[in-house]
Target: glutamine synthetase
Amino acid sequence: MSSLDELLNLSLEDKHIIAEYIWIGGSGTDLRSKARTLPGPVTDPKKLPKWNYDGSSTGQAPGEDSEVILYPQAIFKDPFRRGHNILVICDAYTPQGVPIPTNKRAAAAEIFSKKEVSEEETWFGLEQEYTLLQKDVKWPLGWPVGGYPGPQGPYYCGTGADKAWGRDIVNAHYKACLYAGIQISGINGEVMPGQ
Model:
C-alpha cells in the first residue's frame, strides 16, 4: 500500500495536467479554488475553458440564481504539484457575462485598457504584509502567549532566533512565488515579531 506522500507525489505528466482555478470569494479577502483536469499543458489563459461554481456558497450570488462563471486571466506554474500543473487566476462573471460585484479586476482592466492610460509607463509598488499565527493559540508567532513582545526596533529586517520567527515559512513562500513565476522583488521581516 502506498503512503499518502507517495500518492501526493505521483506523477501524472504523461496523462493529465491539473489546473487549480483560483478566485476571490464573497468577503473580498477569502481565496477560493477548485481543480480541473486537462489533457495536456496550457500556457495561454485564453485557451483554458471557462468554468462555473455555486456563488450562493461563496456569498457571491443568491440561492435562486447561484451560477457564477470563472474566466481564466493568468497562469502560473504550480509550486505545490509542480511539473506542467498550473495555478489559474480567474475573475468571476454572471452567466450573461456581467462582472459580479466582487470582481474588481474587470473594472481595473477597463481603466488600464483606455488609450491615455495604456500609453503611460505604469509602475506598481505593492507591499504584501502578513502575520504568522501560532496554530493552537491564534497568537502571533514570537509573542509570549497572552502577552506582548519587547518594543519594536530589533525585529524590522532582523535576523536570529530571537528576532525572526517563522523564517522557514517565509523562505518557502518566497521560493514558491519565484517558482510560480510571480514577480516578487524581495522579502523582509517587519516591525512586529511574526510579521
